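hiii so um. not sure if this is the right channel but i have a protein structure encoded as tokens and i wanna go backwards to a sequence. like what aa goes where. can anyone help
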């Protein structure tokens, strides 16, 4: 899920402790490349199966995705 709080976008997703995650953003699906959100790359999955990452530089329109990988 995605929510906005105080100008920051918070993305919560199902996760596993055996993975690390990267929050990526894009302004327009038709143009541009996915970029990692600073400080939100290599985020360890949290116990309990839910992890929240934050984009403190959220724009009015932004598309997010989560990229999992092995640690």
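sure thing!! here u go:
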């Amino acid at each position: 899920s995605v929510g906005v709080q105080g100008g920051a976008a918070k993305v919560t997703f199902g996760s596993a402790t055996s993975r690390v995650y990267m929050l990526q953003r894009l302004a327009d699906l038709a143009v541009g490349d996915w970029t990692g959100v600073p400080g939100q790359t290599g985020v360890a999955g949290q116990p309990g199966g839910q992890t929240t990452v934050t984009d403190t530089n959220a724009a009015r329109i932004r598309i997010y995705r989560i990229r999992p990988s092995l640690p």
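oh and The chain has a mean pLDDT of 94.
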